[in-house]
Amino acid sequence: MSPIDRRRFMTGSSAALLAGGFVTRPMAQAEAEGWPKPRPTKIHVVYMGLRGAWPKPEFDAPAEVAKFKKYLAGVAARLGDVEFAGGELIPNRNEGVATTIASLGDADAILLIHLAFGSSEPMRKLADTGLPMVIFSQPFSGHDWMYVPRWQKAGAKVVLLPSSDYADLDRAVALLRVPARMRQSRILLVGSAAGTAAAQSPDHVRDRTGAEVVPITVQQVIEAHHAVDLKAAEAEAEQEWLRPAKKIVEPAREEIVKSARMYLALKRLMIRERAQAVTIRCLGGIPIATLGYPCLAFSKLCDLGLVGACEADMDSTLTMLEFAYAFGKPGFITDPLFDISKNAIIHAHCLAPTRMDGPGAERAPFLIRTHRDDNKGASLEVELRVGQEITCAKLANLDTILLSSGKIIEIPDFDDRGCRTQIVTRVADARRMLANWGSGLLGEDMMTLLHRVVFYGNHIESVRDLAQLMGQKVVMEG
Predict the structure, then answer these.
(1) Where would a tag sit more exposed on the chain, N or C end, judged by fewer CB atoms within 10 A?
(2) 113 shares its domain with 249
(3) Residues 387 and 457 sit within 8 Å (Cβ to Cβ)
(4) Residues of the domain holding 143
């Protein structure tokens, strides 16, 4: 693919990539609503390879560097939240790499552009810094790629992209943002944490993902809820829920206003604490008569590119946060059920985003319903898209992503049983997935073993790369 063809690719067939969040600021909509803007991710770029028999004796490395620098300037403009530093051209031998390592400073990540064949030692030494690193290596740049899988198996946070397509740089740089974004993230936890033991520990969460857990009491939420002006809550309810709803089935208007008040209360707390995510022990953990359920509030947060996660499920909260940064799409936490007659999984819950394609996308049609467990409060029945490919994931124990893919084939109708939003997704092998559920990683707790998070799009290969950059493993469940 020529440079001209690459430019056409980036303005044509990669429109979906742009819309999917790879090359836009994932939380730009939230920033417009008052959330603080994060600092740009600083990526140190290194070009390696001056001369040699490969790719050819007369190879002009500075000319190649100029091409890449021009392209990366476009990547920075498209992403809007990265800053490239460095840019030095070093030999494909040991000379020069020590100086480069000493100049990394406060870089968040490394992008190594492999130009010519030589020693792999500079690559290895850069990988040994511990910074997340992507190696982009065009065909005929050399054979140094052979060593990278060994470093990966040894735990290096390095991704190899042997590709002739410059567009892969957009995806790579977008993923390089995620570890830095996680280190800037704060998660409000209302009530006691649920999930795997590792995810319940704020110290382990910070050490392994970079995110900080901020405890918030139920009383603080009640006080913030009471502090919201009623007229502001009514205006929010009218604009966000009452007018756009396809139908309001059970809840009274007052219940929907209460939910809008919850969103405004959580917004105030999150902005005050500089948080990008919130999770609440909502079932039995908060006074529903006073606050209502947080389902509508969480849906709005997810629509903005933030994270609102139910049942204090820390594993799912972290999954949603990582994927929001990586792909710019919200997650739908579900209680899965199997239907082997259709080789399918039914995903169901009373909380779903209405902008599953990402912030700024068109909202899916939705009905406002009661919470199905007790027919109280307000929740959503969102009409998700039949025919849509999905990725199903869960970060377990802070170190392993349980992963599968599927396709929405229908919206089930079981006499209004179970949670309000439901989809049937065909999978590769439902029986195998059922037998492998949890892969022995999630213990016996029902909620922890059950919950998964559904995202629009097939992100399997990108999740593998993301896991490598985050120091995590991937286990395919189905």
Answers:
(1) N
(2) no
(3) no
(4) 3-182
Tell me the pLDDT tens digit for each residue of 73-131. 999 999 999 999 999 999 877 777 999 999 999 999 999 999 988 888 899 999 999 99
CATH of the domain at 15: 3.40.50.280
Query: Which tokens belong to 257?
Result: 């206003």
| Whether residue 306 is found in the same domain as residue 385 | yes
Domain co-membership, 100 together with 70: yes
Q: What is the pTM of this model?
A: 0.93
How far, in Å, CA of 71 to CA of 6, rounded? Answer: 10
pLDDT in tens, 224-252: 999 999 999 999 999 999 999 999 999 99
**Residue 382, beta-bridge partner list:** 366
Give the chain's domain count.
2
Same-domain status, 19 and 154: yes
Q: pLDDT category, 19, cuts 50, 70, 90?
A: very low
Q: In terms of pLDDT, which residue wins out, 69 or 18?
A: 69
CATH of residue 355? 3.20.14
Torsion, Cα of 282, 32, 16, 296 (10° steps)? 20
Q: Which long-range contacts (CB under 8 A, 24 or more apart) does 218-224 make?
A: 218/190, 218/191, 218/285, 218/286, 218/287, 220/190, 220/269, 221/190, 221/265, 221/266, 221/269, 221/280, 221/286, 221/291, 222/287, 222/290, 222/291, 224/265, 224/266, 224/268, 224/269
